[in-house]
Amino acid sequence: MQMHTRKVIVVITEALLEKPLTEDIKKLGVRGYTVTSARGEGSRGKRSADLDGAQNIRLEIICDEPLADKITAHLADRYMPNYAMVLYTLDAQVLRPQKF
Amino acid sequence: MQMHTRKVIVVITEALLEKPLTEDIKKLGVRGYTVTSARGEGSRGKRSADLDGAQNIRLEIICDEPLADKITAHLADRYMPNYAMVLYTLDAQVLRPQKF
Amino acid sequence: MQMHTRKVIVVITEALLEKPLTEDIKKLGVRGYTVTSARGEGSRGKRSADLDGAQNIRLEIICDEPLADKITAHLADRYMPNYAMVLYTLDAQVLRPQKF
What we know:
- Chain A is built from two helices and five strands; from the N terminus they run E-H-E-E-E-H-E.
- Chain A is α+β, with helices and mostly antiparallel strands and 100 residues long.
- Chain A has a single domain, classed as 2-Layer Sandwich (Alpha-Beta Plaits).
- In chain A, strands 3-2-4-1-5 form a five-stranded antiparallel beta sheet.
- Chain A is globular.
- Chains in contact: A-B, A-C, B-C.
- At the A-C interface, strand 2, helix 2 and strand 5 of A face strand 2 and strand 5 of C.
């Protein structure tokens, strides 16, 4: 199969940010994203799971590199100073590049 | 530790495909897979979470490159025309290559 | 944005290991980790989901390469002989390297 390089951005943060974050990334041009409920610890302390294990979220976005840069810059500026947030990017191969 | 290169295939799709998809990949030779419940939006619209957050699934498979190609081709042919499905692959390092 | 290379370690294993594993990695120097509930099959057989889909866990750690090697060696020695466990590492880019 002909595969194409894209970025996967993974953001792990507080569950209360799910709505504002997903609205922000759509305004920046993201067409799809995936959220899973998560729990964990970080430099701002432990966030235990509630009944749904949903105190944290893990947000995953596939996009091209320029959009990944815009999203990263926006989150670093808007959220990282005030919220527990971890962000990393991976190099991924996708099938249908026009989707991302 | 001596690590070995394998592919990780990540498939994000509709929860109703969990059973047929996992049966298909086992027939293709996959020996292990991991599923997490997820929610999100894509080009086919928003899929809100039900009580379990389980309208979407995120399926993860580790395998060698030839098997990754077979799985990708099969899913592209069998599911992508008719279902909301995102697929990407990553290069990963594993410890015990004979397992994958 | 200036990004820095780090390792992401992904461990998929039995849910009962969540507490000992996270205690072990903190002793080894890990400052943050993320856990999601998962289900799946592997070479030790199928582990169906309970009500929370929580028979397995997917543990994700971001760290530098020397710590990734220490964690991998510890898990291979302490858990892999006796528990169902899959481990792989990815190369990731992070924003704030001092956090990991």
